[in-house]
From TrEMBL:
Residue ranges of domain Peptidase C14 caspase in the record: 26-248
Protein's recorded name: Caspase family protein
Keyword list, A-Z: Signal
GO MF entry, a single one: cysteine-type endopeptidase activity
Top-level taxonomic group: Bacteria
Gene Ontology BP annotations: proteolysis
Signal peptide stretch: 1-19
UniProt keyword Signal present: yes
DNA repair listed as a keyword: no
Amino acid sequence: MRALVILLFALGAATSAHAAEATAVRRLALLVGVNDGGPERVRLRYAETDAKAFSTVLSELGGVLPQDRVLLTDVDRTGVLAGFDRVRRLAEGVRTAGARRVEVLLYYSGHSDDEGLLLKGQRLDYGELRRSLEGLPADVRIAVLDSCASGAFARKKGGVSRPAFLVDSAIQVKGHAILTSSSADEASQESDRLGGSFFTHHLLSGLRGAADVTHDGRVTLTEAYQFAFHETLARTERTQGGAQHPNYDIELAGTGDLVMTDLRATTAGLVLTEPLEGRLYVRDAVGTLVVEVQKQSGRATELGLAPGAYRARREWDGGVSEAAFTLKEGMRTPLAPGDFLGVGHEATVMRGGGGGMFPQGRTMLPVNLSLVPSMSTNTLRAGRAQVENRFALGVVNGGAALGGGLALGLAGNVYDAEVSGLALALGFNTSGGDVDGGQLSLVTNVAGGAVRGAQASLGLNVTNGDVDGIGQLALGANVARGALGGVQAALGANVTTSDATGLQLSLGANHANGTMKGVQFTLGVNSVATAARGIQGSVLLNHAPSLTGMQLGLINVGGDVSGMQLGLINVADTVHGMQLGLINVSDEVNGVPVGLVSYEKKGQLHLEVFGSDVQLTNLALKFGGKHFYTTLLAGIGPDDRFQRFSLGLGLGGHIPLGSRFWVDVDVAASQVLSTRDPFSSASNNMLTQARAMLGFQVMPRLAVFAGPTYNVAFAWGEPEFAKLTTLPVRSHVINADTRMQRWPGFQVGVRL
């Protein structure tokens, strides 16, 4: 009986704790989808569908209860404002019910311009939209706008991006975050293939687990945005509307991890096993595309999906395969490479006839002897019929195809179709089709199709298709108007107009107009249009919108960098890894920036005013990342009748201690100059300092700090070594021209 009482008491306590947790955090959502932007706007097809899909994800994974969701479709300005009123009343109700923190998420899909939302011919100005959002009684407000020119709403006001919200009730976060599908002057685009907009599709894929880079089963705001940004940009670069750049404005203060979705909230799930790799498209039973993810081998990925039947399509290594599976209640279903079956490609033919490698209707003549194509044994024996040779010898060889043989041309070889073998000439080689084998010449090689072998020349290699095999070798330039799988080596330039896998090596320039997987090395410029996975090495400049690997050069420019930038000047958007250089510039670094000057847009930028035992009045400008900074120092002493001033530079680290306290530790070097004559021997000195500062954040833009310093001053060539401090010092004579003083000191100041 006693055991039963204890058990009932424990169950009651657990239930009470669960209820308290449930009421500690409440998230409300207002979801708006409007296809009709007015008579002057093309009617959208998927805005309402996107809003419903977003509502589903919030319900399954985002912790939003059915009664806390307001879904509006096909509404005008009045309807949206009425929706805000409903959410405001809901927020007031849950606050009254005892919720410790209230979070509100606004999602809008539809038409807009640089002034506001366009709803069935009516405009809701961004100013009114922002006031409506800020008027909601919530601690955290999240807005996601998927519409043209929506970046105008995300006015960047210097907000600091901090980790994210939702599941953990112990976090302390307040403020707002605004995500938009495009910049202020760009169009947002829909896709019939996706059945929705590019941005919302990839954002929802990320929220379902594709963005979970930490593999902790939760997707944060930062993870979701970065995933949606890069996928949207990559998928819209070649569309008719052009590249689409999502935008953001984040002003959050506090501590904790702002979680958008919890993958463990679903009663079923899909686990992409470690060996599985490739781009996967997962559709539900009715054919709706619910998740798109680029799966890398080596780590498992979990996707949060509802129970039901699904089909996955996999694109990998040039092939396509499919798998059907069913997710069951209470189970995590694994998906492995062996679950996929190959899907045959659709048979195609070229317009105007033609067929496979050796189509019917082509005459087989083993040997061709020629002066020029019109004066050859091919012409004498076959007239104008298509001819295929095994061996050709002449000044200029010509024909329909060279099948698995050899063509030796003094001036050149001209083939209308495929070359399967080796074409060798002192002048030029041209092929109207694929090349399986090689083209070797002193001047030019041109292939109208793919090259599976080698093109080698002293001049120029050009192919209108892919290059697979050894590659293109030239002293002049290599151009592949398709993908590269192999090597491009030139003293001049290498250009690939699609993806490149392998090596681009030149003294001039390398460019891949797609994704580069491998190595680019040059004395000049390396450039990648989409993404680089591997190494970019250059004496001058490396550029890649997205990099996984390493950039090594004088100047490195990257977008999203996962790896390392090593150079004199490093520039990037987001860095997951290290920047090592003289000057480092980035939007955000999740890692280590090491440099003489490091500036991080989302990092720290502070002005400090302080006094010390050396000089009464000092200014310091601190800038850098979240944990590493550069400081510029300047000081002057009214206590010594302004007889000297100092200029210096320092490097240090920032250590947060909870929400209010922090410690900065750095080393700095300053030159103390005479105000009368900065270039006199009295200015021939150096002050080095090791400093520790304990700070207290009084308010967001004001902090006070104090701490000890240890000072070492050197003077050269000056008979008298004036003290720089009123505190006791220890003096040392190093040699006849060099003296040193050292002493412990202090500093006290405020940070703005």
